[in-house]
UniProtKB/TrEMBL annotation:
The gene is pcaH. This is Protocatechuate 3,4-dioxygenase subunit beta. Residues 60-75 have a biased composition (Basic and acidic residues). PROSITE patterns: INTRADIOL_DIOXYGENAS (PS00083). The lineage of its organism: Bacteria, Bacillati, Actinomycetota, Actinomycetes, Pseudonocardiales. GO terms for molecular function: protocatechuate 3,4-dioxygenase activity. Keywords: Dioxygenase, Oxidoreductase. Its EC number is 1.13.11.3. Residues 82-110 form the Intradiol ring-cleavage dioxygenases domain. NCBIfam families: protocat_alph, protocat_beta.
Amino acid sequence: MAAPTELKLPRYGPDPEGTHPPLGFTGYRSTALRHPHQPLVLLPQMLTEVTGPLLGPGRLGEHDSDLTRQHAEEPQGQRIVVTGRLLDGDGRPVRDSLVEIWQANAGGRYRHTGDRWPSPLDPNFDGVGRALTDSDGRYTFTTIKPGAYPWKNHDNAWRPAHIHFSVFGSAFTQRLVTQMYFPDDPLFSQDPIFNSIPDEKARQRMISRYDHDITRPEWALGYQFDIVLRGSEASVFEEEEDED
């Protein structure tokens, strides 16, 4: 009879100062109305952290990782392949982890009732996907490059093109939500969400890298975007977006 598997709680060291945005950021006006004003309370670690819900293969549909094949017709816009590795704070791959994305369409519009600016909806693009990481911690999505869109944070405000990511580590409580941007976007300089990250190096880790090796001939451009859950190279926790 095999010996029972020993359950061990993961231990979390602090991320470097400046990696994550402050709870309130002057340039991002809606944070003043919703960020907590009392000190945060750290909950003790319990065994439920490693025995909680598992988000495995049963959660995936046939075309969940290919957002260009979820309808009868193809969506409008530039096809892209986005791939990368999910790593823990020591650089080890996080296997069999659920990665979810959501994004605007090529015209910069989300498929939800709160997005009503006059850019057309694409009937063949929902803008949501999910994938599981493989044994090397790698995920891959085929999608459409999202467009920029206006929001009412300040005069003539536009969000840079971006894709939202939600990932889970080796435990249910290790969820990280972040944003992936594209290289050389001219809207970086006026975007308070991007610029709320104090550390310049951490800010740059939110920008994907064009990769010609994964670009598919006559089909799709390729981008690399690794996600690190903790440590000196930790990915940035995003500020929650508010288009009002």
